[in-house]
């Protein structure tokens, strides 16, 4: 796609008129119109300002620059690149610090990139076949062979997660998130689609997880992202930690974590794909 239609698409996605956007940028509506129709050329500086005002993800900012004939502004290195070793170390340290509470790191489409040992509690409910492809935390949570049958407040959790994915898809314009949203919808019964408002006005929605031994844990999810990233991969990374919402849940997690290495060995025997993620490697 050329730069003009790309700007127009993002402007429409953000529900801004040419007048509103040009006023924010301090350029004439005529010039913005010419850029969108291809009759005028945008400078690199203007494209970067456009991207900032439209709140584009870093990946989309680079795409806009490339469409305008300019070099990308941000890095795009894979997480296993040597230069990303400090990032991998930071993720591992952060995840380990949250043990015994489950904590997991995901990319911009919620694919799992790392997990701490506490996640064995969650992933032990998931059929190993779901790890044959890149495991996705939304799929693992809502798939009927994943965590879903063990979540006692599944309707609330499903609605919350669907809203999160739908919002991310709308804001990012990422077709992978559109596909993920459609897939997650297919697991539901049609009564929840993620388009409505939250069910109530609680600040945080607890996840009530029923364990194999019949205990019910009340967990709260917290998300951490990297500040001021300059690489598209880092910009998409986040960590999610499941913290106990009450004392009995905290006590259960602490007791359950005793002998965790043996638990992980039992859980992952014969399932190397699962082992890689539960062990956090």
From TrEMBL:
Pfam families: HTH_31, MLTR_LBD
Signal peptide annotation: none
Alphabetized PROSITE patterns for the sequence: HTH_CROC1
Taxonomy, superkingdom: Bacteria
InterPro entries assigned: Cro/C1-type_HTH, Lambda_DNA-bd_dom_sf, MLTR_LBD
Domain (HTH cro/C1-type): residue spans on this chain: 7-61
Any one GO molecular-function label of the UniProt entry: DNA binding
Listed SUPFAM superfamilies: lambda repressor-like DNA-binding domains
Keyword DNA-binding on entry: yes
Record keywords, A-Z: DNA-binding
PANTHER family found in the cross-reference section: BLL4672 PROTEIN-RELATED, BLL5781 PROTEIN
Name of the featured protein: DNA-binding XRE family transcriptional regulator
Source organism: Prauserella rugosa
């Amino acid at each position: 796609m050329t730069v003009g239609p790309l700007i127009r698409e993002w402007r429409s996605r953000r529900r801004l008129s040419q007048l509103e956007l040009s006023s924010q940028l301090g350029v004439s509506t005529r010039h913005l119109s010419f850029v969108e129709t291809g009759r005028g050329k945008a400078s690199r500086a203007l494209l970067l300002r456009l991207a900032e005002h439209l709140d584009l993800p870093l990946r989309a900012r680079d795409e806009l620059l490339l469409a305008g004939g300019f070099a990308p502004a941000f890095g795009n290195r894979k997480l296993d690149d040597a230069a990303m070793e400090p990032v991998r170390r930071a993720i591992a340290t952060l995840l380990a610090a949250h043990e015994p509470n489950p904590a997991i790191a995901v990319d911009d489409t919620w694919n799992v990139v790392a997990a701490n040992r506490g996640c064995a509690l969650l992933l032990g409910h998931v059929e190993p076949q779901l790890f044959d492809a890149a495991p996705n935390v939304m799929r693992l949570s809502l798939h009927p062979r994943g965590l879903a049958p063990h979540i006692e407040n599944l309707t609330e959790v499903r609605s919350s997660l669907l809203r999160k994915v739908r919002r991310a898809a709308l804001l990012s314009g990422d077709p992978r998130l559109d596909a993920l949203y459609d897939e997650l919808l297919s697991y539901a019964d049609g009564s929840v689609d993620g388009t409505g408002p939250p069910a109530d006005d609680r600040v945080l929605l607890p996840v009530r997880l029923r364990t194999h031994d019949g205990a019910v844990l009340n967990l709260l999810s917290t998300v951490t992202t990297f500040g001021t990233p300059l690489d598209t991969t880092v910009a998409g990374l986040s960590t999610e930690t499941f913290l106990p919402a009450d004392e009995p849940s905290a006590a259960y997690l602490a007791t359950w974590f005793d002998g965790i290495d043996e638990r992980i060995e039992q859980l992952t025997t014969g399932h190397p794909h699962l082992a890689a993620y539960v062990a956090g490697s």
